[in-house]
Specification:
The structure is a homodimer. By secondary structure, chain A is an alpha+beta fold. Chain A has three domains: 147 residues, Butyryl-Coa Dehydrogenase, subunit A, domain 1; 128 residues, Butyryl-CoA Dehydrogenase, subunit A, domain 2, CATH 2.40.110; 300 residues, Butyryl-CoA Dehydrogenase, subunit A, domain 3 (Up-down Bundle). Chain A is 56% helix and 11% strand. The first copy, chain A, contains 19 helices and twelve strands. In chain A, the strands form three sheets. In chain A, strands 3, 4, 5, 6, 7, 10, 11 and 12 form an eight-stranded mixed beta sheet that branches. A two-stranded antiparallel ribbon of chain A has the order 1-2. A two-stranded antiparallel ribbon of chain A has the order 8-9. Chain A is globular, with a radius of gyration of 24 Å. Chain A starts with 6 loop residues before the first helix and ends with a helix. The relative contact order of chain A is 0.09. At the A-B interface, helix 10, helix 11, helix 12, helix 13 and helix 16 of A face helix 10, helix 11, helix 12, helix 13 and helix 16 of B.
């Protein structure tokens, strides 16, 4: 079973859950029409299905390899990457000034989902390149932009992010890599970076590293970190490649998943220092990184959606083929296991959670777009804050869902799920990295609670809650028994989120940070559950309306069923999560004694 | 970080949660004293820590291998297995008539936990042997017993269970392997079996296969399946090994985890049929299997506890060593990540869930023992039913917990968790099989709801509920603020379980099997949550009482903290699960439309 991009569901979610329909009606997206959007998704889906998906199993089995510091991707990867870049997919979200197509985040998010669903290990390289392009576009000098952006945007070169060092993971205060001014405007970079995704490979002739490092006189901590552009090959004034820079890949990691994505230990400055160029201001490197982090975090959330979708499709296919036992009400003989209620429950959980996470991610992308594109400055500000609020939820909820759905996918396969050749296990192994990188999900939860809830004195989160409540009201007003408990359970979840939010805002105002920190993880989950229920209810409302207007597509009944299933089985977790949140820091009293034995 | 058997916690759980203390006081366990119990655990722990645990990483890396049908376990495994069997550990639970030590299930369960925590791939072979010994002891002829049991009990030979065929997994109706009477009292077995754990290996000179097969005139379905003993090497009348039997290992699987445990495709009868001997009556093979299934399912549940414990220890060790960021209230500099509230929450979740699952498994073992050993026949009957009720919960809840805790273990390690050399990923990969084999967790949930709830007209489950309620009452009566919400949340969970149980009993009585089948999985989880909360509260009560009597062991405060943490953060899921249960089959209405797209 290969991947088939769920273009109809994606387009429906974009239009009716993320509100792209309305944004288009407002003229926010310029010439981008629904038709064009759907054409782009169709084309991206075709490339993902036909070209990338076939690489995935083999990529897992072969993995990236390293010989004498040279890293090779699996056979066939370079050809597909080159075709992909030549088709313009890398340039999709980039600034037209540098050769990009300038398409909005909603389109890019849907495409990122398809690349990652077809092969997460493949799509990860371009994801990092996109981050590098963004940071350079926002912060680098005109000269650096002119030298590097056209190649990076075209995908002829790829980019990396070099943050982590052995002693500096979640805590970048501890970065030690040094940068010494060379006197000619450039710097000499010395140090070691670990966990560098696509730090070295054979897909492109040059690799552009963005490296966090400290100047000699830099203050301690994160306020003394600067960002440098350090190319693998130096670039001559005419744009041709010059000398090899003083950097190398020392080794690649042996990982649980995404085997074909090389995770490199990079060594800078064996011979006096790699030549690097400052991006942005001195000592402001972390700020440069943060400007692109919202996008990168959203993209990782989309990876969670992607792997969940892939695992779901794989499991559904198997469950329809595999026959065991007789399902209730079935004729004699064995039924497809998809007809057994407990397997159906697993498949519905997979699909409902995937759709919920997709809704959250696309809503976040739409808020990002509105933050850039809205005509009104105040609306841009509000939308930007909404995107900031939703980003940690999109990242952490979706990547947790990715793992849970992939694990359910293994379970649906029974014994076959544990056999590597089946493919289900790979999705589970691949998915496991997403809750860790680009800021662990614990860090996301702390970001949500400590930095995002207080935005505009709590108004931003209140606006999000009001929006969810409106959806519940609309379901009630639709007054159709087909919705079952959808409105009641959604309202219950929003009430819980509301009370939990008030508890946390009060804790932060009262300087009870311990309570907020202890409660951060269940709070983020609660947020995702409520927002996910609202996303599915929105889709159900749109489907309901379409049916009312005579649209006989059976998918509409499916969307209503999915919202109801989520309401009954997943949104019902909200009150328990609220209770966990409001237990506060006291729930960890004597924890050190409990953990001592 | 290697494994250190948590002997103190295990003994405490046995005594105060599983009630072994009281059972000993009643004289149920004969000469087995607390002292002797603790000595056995200490010795088993020593063997597990020192001999088995060092095999685990290497076993994962090397894996079992096959060349020309010969299967090799990793280097060193045979030596450790031989030493383990010679030390008498294999014989521990077996009938003294055949060389066993006749120790009860509570002792065996604790030991099984240690073998599996030190290496699940290693311990799996003996687990299957124990099942074979049990089936032969209960059902085979005197002659078969005399020929095979002494060697199997001593661990000189190992045993296997051959159930699954490509078309017959959860549904054994479809078994096709044939058995023809040879006229001399033996049978000729022909067919193919898949997923046969330790079906072939180099640990012992002979392997005794128990094989499900059909006689020529057998009725269709499961009532036409018989059980046969089929040795790898035939046994001469003097007990020496004779000719090689007509069976072979065709291949071994490439699996997600437990790499060192060979999972074999077995072929019987290439040359006219393997010689087999009937165990039990013709066409009653499935009944013979079922008598030993409670024990085997409990043992798999214990595997879940084991891998959770191992993952917890690994993560705790890392979290205490690894320093990042400054924890709230800490002095300057980086704190161990174990001091950060969100990491502490992960560790507490790991420990609380592990202890809850351990409590449930040991309680199940104690009920099994009481079912055999109680003086009063009515008590034996009731205890036997209680064990039957708890077994699917012990199996499914504990193995789900095993996966969840192992996944949290990866998360605690951050990026290092995704690197195979760290070891955390292996626990997650190994753990993933346990919810699948020995009856998938979906099958367990159906068993619980369809066959176990109706036991004694619902009296058995009512007795379990009453027991949990008593624990809540005792916590309330203790009237100490240190318990926090323990009593309230436990009572809430029991109330939810009670209502969900009534709903299901009513559905079953009203022939609304669809409702029961659709609700089975959340019901089992709810049962585990309530029973787990009760188990931890029991431990907390015992710790509280010990403190009252002047015992200053700080572990007691830890036990109370753990029960409170579970109550606040995990038991609070109960009401949501109840709502999912009582949504019934309607929650799957139109599911096929939702899954169609």
């Amino acid at each position: 079973m290969s991947y088939r991009a769920p273009v109809a569901d994606m387009a429906f979610t974009l239009k009716h859950v993320a509100g792209v329909d309305q944004a288009m009606a407002e003229g926010l997206y310029g010439e981008l029409s629904v038709d064009l959007l759907e054409t782009i998704l169709e084309e991206a889906g075709k490339f993902a299905n036909e070209r990338i998906a076939p690489l995935n199993r083999m990529g897992d089995e072969t993995g990236a390899t390293i010989v004498d510091g040279k890293v090779a991707t699996p056979p066939g990867w370079k050809e597909v990457y080159t075709a992909w870049a030549e088709a313009g997919w890398n340039a999709l979200p980039c600034d037209p000034e540098w050769g990009g197509q300038g398409l909005p985040s909603v389109v890019q998010s849907a495409c990122v989902e398809m690349w990652n669903a077809s092969s997460m290990a493949f799509a990860l390289g371009p994801l990092l390149t996109a981050g590098a392009v963004e940071a350079i576009t926002a912060h680098a000098s005109r000269e650096l932009k002119e030298t590097y952006l056209p190649k990076l945007v075209a995908g002829e070169w790829m980019g990396t992010m070099n943050l982590t060092e052995p002693q500096a993971g979640s805590d970048l205060n501890a970065v030690r890599t040094r940068a010494e001014p060379a006197g000619d405007g450039s710097y000499r970079i010395t140090g070691q970076k670990i966990f560098i995704t696509y730090g070295e490979h054979d897909l492109t002739e040059n690799i552009v590293h963005l490296v966090l490092a400290r100047l000699p006189d830099a203050p301690a901590g994160t306020r003394g970190i600067s960002l440098f552009l350090v190319p693998k090959f130096l670039v001559n004034p005419d744009g041709t490649l010059g000398a090899r820079n003083d950097l190398r890949c020392h080794s690649i990691e042996h990982k649980m998943g995404i085997h074909a994505s090389p995770t490199c230990t990079m060594v800078y400055g064996d011979h006096g220092g790699a030549i690097g160029y400052l991006v942005g201001e001195e000592n402001r490197g972390l700020n440069c990184m943060f400007t692109m982090m919202n996008n990168a975090r959203l993209a990782v959330g989309v990876q969670g959606v992607a792997i969940a979708e892939r695992a779901y499709q794989h499991a559904l296919h198997y469950a329809r083929e595999r026959r065991q036992g007789r399902a209730p009400g079935a004729a004699d003989g064995m039924s497809p296991i998809a007809d057994h209620p407990d397997v159906q429950r697993m498949l519905m959980t997979m699909k409902a959670q995937t759709q919920a996470a997709r809704g959250i991610c696309y809503m976040t992308a739409a808020a990002l777009d509105r933050g850039h594109l809205a005509k009104d400055a105040e609306e841009r500000r509000r939308s930007h804050e909404m995107a900031s609020l939703l980003t940690p939820v999109a990242k952490a909820y979706s990547t947790d869902i990715g793992c849970e759905v992939a694990s359910l996918g293994v379970q649906v396969h029974g014994g076959m799920g544990f056999i590597e050749e089946t493919g289900a296990a790979q999705f589970m192994r691949d998915a496991r990295i997403a809750p860790i990188y680009e800021g662990t999900n614990g860090i996301q939860a702390i970001d949500l609670v400590m930095r995002k809830l207080p935005l505009s004195g709590g108004e931003t989160v209140r606006a999000a809650l009001a929006e969810m409540r409106k959806v519940a009201t609309r379901v009630t007003q639709a007054n159709d028994p087909v919705f079952g408990n959808t409105a009641a359970r959604l309202r219950g979840a929003v009430d819980s989120l509301d009370r939990a939010t008030s508890y946390l805002l009060k804790a932060l105002a009262g300087n009870a940070q311990q309570d907020a920190l202890a409660a951060a993880t269940p709070y983020l989950r609660l947020f995702g559950v409520a927002q996910g229920a609202a996303a599915l209810a929105r889709a159900a409302l749109a489907a309901h309306e379409a049916r009312r207007q005579g649209d006989g597509d059976p998918a509409h009944a499916g969307r209503i069923a999915l919202a109801r299933f989520f309401a009954d089985n997943i949104a019902t977790a909200a009150e328990g999560l609220e209770q966990a949140v409001t237990a506060g820091a006291a729930t960890l009293d004597d924890a050190e004694l409990a953990l001592a034995s």
